[in-house]
Amino acid sequence: MPRVFSGIQPTGEPHIGNYFGAMRNYVRLGEEFGKNSIYCVVDLHAITNPASFEPRLLAQRTFEMAVANFAAGLDPSRVTFFVQSHVPEHQELAWIFTTLTPVGELERMTQYKDKSEQLESVPAGLLMYPALMAADILLYKADTVPVGEDQTQHIELTREIARKFNHAFGETFPEPKAVYNKQALRIPGVDGNGKMGKSKGPGSTIGILEPLDAIWQKLRVAPTDPARVRRTDPGNPDVCLIFDYHKLFSDLDTLQTVDAGCRTAGIGCIDCKKTLLAGMTEHLSPIHERAEALKADPDFVRDALAQGAKEARATAQPIMEEVREKVGFLK
Ligand code: SF4
Question: Is 314 exposed, middle or buried (0-12, 13-18, 19+ CB in 10 A)?
Fold first, then answer.
């Protein structure tokens, strides 16, 4: 049975790009692979970058990321969902992998270069990040890894580490494959400045748990087709981010009405945005309600995470035993 692994950064509230690009995919894979879909909130990764790590907020963000995923439809009783630091085997395997990975390989990772350039002093943990990521995946002998395309290099390195370990200590790990969700690549930020979440602007994202009136304030001022200077100017929905959002939240009839209305100046941009907000309200309101219920019952969330860590360890421990024996540690 194939095994799926994916790590989720506890950095801020997930946005609709995360939701359509990753979270809905987790739910779908969970229905297919059940407990063999293994998802963890990667708090050990979060502390490697001092530019974004805020100790006061880490526990809260980790909790909120679990709430957001459960509210978005991930059922913790059907998949394995836990917090990375609750399963210490991740760190143990990562250490072994650092001994197999040349520093030069780690230094040429694009993400490391981008992040380290912005720091005065670079922590060793930031350099070791890909070894920890390889450990996250291989600790469960996962063969399928849903990720964004920016993780391609890290998955390649994971495959390389698996090959090196197998060569040095005998066949142990599969070489995992990345699976990409193309939809994630096309969701623009609401400020019109590239992909959602990539722009530095505070107003570039729409959070899946963001209040609808706050979402409206962002939509209201969002750029549209610049050719529509006056209400009577026809527009082109293909160059408008609002239409990209309609494709996510509106039904086919609405899409066709908006498309025709835009091209003939039959509708104005504010009306178009109000129609979008109605679609978003229908889609996001049940998620908001589930999130409120989960926040009101934090013990449910904590118990689900504790149970998830127990299940993850039940899979990880025999694999770690095999690794320890192959590496040659005294029992
Ligand atoms: Fe964009 Fe809608 Fe305005 Fe057309 S009518 S430019 S799709 S906001």
Answer: exposed
One domain, residues 116 and 228: no
Pair (168, 252) in one structural domain: no
272 lines ligand 1 (CB under 6 A): yes
Catalytic entry in 195, 274, 295, 326: 195
Ligand 1 centroid vs 240 CA: distance in angstroms? 6
H helix runs in the chain, sequence order: 16-18, 24-33, 43-46, 55-71, 89-98, 103-107, 110-117, 124-138, 152-169, 212-220, 241-249, 252-263, 269-295, 298-327
Is 113 catalytic? The answer is no
Number of domains making up the chain: 2
Q: What is the pLDDT of residue 69?
A: 96
Identify the residue whose C-alpha is closest to ligand 1 atom 7: 237
197, part of any domain: no
pLDDT per position as a tens digit, 108-161: 999 999 999 999 999 999 999 999 999 999 999 999 999 888 889 999 999 999
The answer to whether residue 46 sits within a structural domain is yes
Same domain as 172, residue 235: no
User: CA-to-CA distance for 295 and 291, rounded, in angstroms?
Assistant: 6
Residue 237, ligand 1, Cβ within 6 A:
yes
Q: Are residues 320 and 285 in the same domain?
A: no
- 310 catalytically annotated: no
> In degrees to the nearest 10, what's the CA dihedral of 186, 191, 192, 196?
-20
* 177 catalytically annotated: no
Q: ipTM greater than 0.85, yes or no?
A: yes
Tokens of 295: 């926040």
Does residue 233 share a domain with residue 105? no
Partnered with residue 40 across adjacent β-strands are: 7, 82
- Same domain membership, residue 286 and residue 303: no
Q: How many CB atoms lie within 10 A of CB 142?
A: 23
Residue range of the domain that includes 246: 212-290
115 within some domain: yes
26 with 107, same domain: the answer is: yes
